């Protein structure tokens, strides 16, 4: 200890106050990455019609999303009507269990019925008979 010298206090750095904030942001990021369920969205935005029943499909179907402008999406691949039959046949041929292979068709509730009938007739040409139409649950069914 030196007598007579003044004590010089170390200046606090402005960035020292940011460290707790950065820690909290990283913890929140990790929390939402682990706790949040991130799912792929459909490449074509549709609003399915409301459901009249409470039954749900438990298996993992092939999802086909249909739009008004002659676009059809299987997974993240957007196809036209002509390529739809070829893609369905290729996926059906590659399926391990052909008896369990089924299709879920998602369409907009405001889409004309003739567009849906055209897509369903294309699916029928492939020989697949297990087809379901996606609907939304009503608010009171939740």
The biggest sheet, with number of strands, parallel, antiparallel or mixed sense and barrel status, is: 5 strands, mixed
Q: What best-fitting shape do the alpha-carbon axes yield?
A: elongated
Class per helix and strand makeup: alpha/beta
Q: What is the first-to-last residue Cα distance?
A: 74 Å
Count of runs of 4 or more consecutive helical residues: 3
The radius of gyration over CA amounts to: 28 Å
At the first level of CATH, the class of the domain at 62-141 is Alpha Beta
CATH topology of the domain at 62-141: Nucleotidyltransferase, domain 5
Parts with pLDDT < 50 across at least 5 consecutive residues: none
Q: What is the number of beta strands?
A: 5
User: Order of helices and strands, N to C?
Assistant: HEEEHEHE
What helical percentage do the residues reach?
Answer: 25-40%
Estimate what percentage of residues fall within beta strands.
5-15%
Family: Belongs to the ExbD/TolR family.
Protein name: Biopolymer transporter ExbD
Organism: Methylophaga aminisulfidivorans
GO molecular function: transmembrane transporter activity
């Amino acid at each position: 200890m030196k007598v007579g010298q003044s004590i010089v206090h170390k200046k606090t750095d402005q960035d020292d106050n940011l460290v707790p904030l950065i820690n909290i942001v990283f913890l929140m990021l990790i929390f939402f990455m682990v706790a949040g369920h991130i799912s792929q969205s459909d490449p074509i935005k549709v609003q399915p019609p409301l459901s009249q029943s409470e039954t749900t499909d438990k298996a993992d179907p092939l999802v086909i999303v249909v739009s008004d402008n002659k676009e059809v999406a299987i997974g993240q691949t957007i196809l036209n009507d002509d390529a739809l039959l070829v893609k369905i046949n290729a996926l059906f041929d590659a399926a391990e269990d052909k008896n369990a292979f089924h299709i879920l068709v998602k369409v907009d509730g405001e889409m004309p019925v003739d567009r849906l009938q055209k897509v369903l007739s294309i699916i029928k040409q492939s020989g697949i008979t297990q087809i379901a139409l996606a609907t939304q649950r009503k608010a009171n069914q939740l």
